[in-house]
Amino acid sequence: LDTAKYTVTYEQEQLDGTYAVTAVSTYSGTVGNTVMAPLNTYDGYTTPTAQALTILDDGTATVIYKYPRRSYTVTITKNEGISSVTGAGTYKYGEPVALTATVASGYTFYEWAGGEDSAEFTMPAEDIDMSATAVVYAGYHNVAFISNTGMGIESQSVINNGTATEPVTPSRSG
Predict the structure, then answer these.
(1) Is residue 109's pLDDT more than 80?
(2) How far apart are CA 48 and CA 46, in angstroms?
């Protein structure tokens, strides 16, 4: 029985929707036999249905497998102090993701937490849940005291909405 080669080409979808060759494998088998061309698997891509091909004596039998990118979801939770967020939605595997959070008045941004460490990342092969957190802005004010005696009184640093401590009444001797 004669044997001949056949070729299997594997193409992955690019972010622009075109396909690029990822791998080309050559196999051999008995001429005239019908075989199922082997599949590969790739994280973030949908594996196509296996195709049968008949091995030709001239070695020209070919199968091209196209692997479309999978889409995954980014969800964002607004915690206290966050007035709005953007960037939640559906993204293709490998697509850049940028999240933003608008902080409410009186708060300062604290952190993004969840499946990724920052607000800008490349979409992995899984759904991502993120949360934006802010904390109450703890601004300080410098409180200065003026003495009618002309003596210096030490100033105090007081947190927003806090209360300064009454200074000791200055006294002069002599």
Answers:
(1) yes
(2) 6
Distance of CA 106 to the CA centre of its chain: 28
Residue 153 · residue 147 · CB < 8 Å: yes
Q: Which two tokens stand for residue 156?
A: 């105090």
Which residues contact residue 49 at a Cβ distance below 8 angstroms, ignoring those fewer than 6 apart?
Answer: none
Q: Give the pTM.
A: 0.74
Whether the predicted pLDDT of 83 surpasses 90: yes
DSSP 136-169: E---EEEE----TTS-----EEEETT--PPPPPP
Across all residues in the chain, what is the average pLDDT? 90
Kindly provide the residue ranges of all beta strands, DSSP E only, lying in 55-99, ordered along the sequence.
61-67, 71-78, 82-86, 89-92, 96-98
What's the token pair of residue 154? 């030490």
Instruction: List the one residue out of 52, 15, 14 whose CA is nearest residue 33.
Output: 52
Alpha carbon distance 91, 125 (integer Å): 10
Region of 62 please: left (phi>0), alpha (psi -120 to 50) or beta: beta
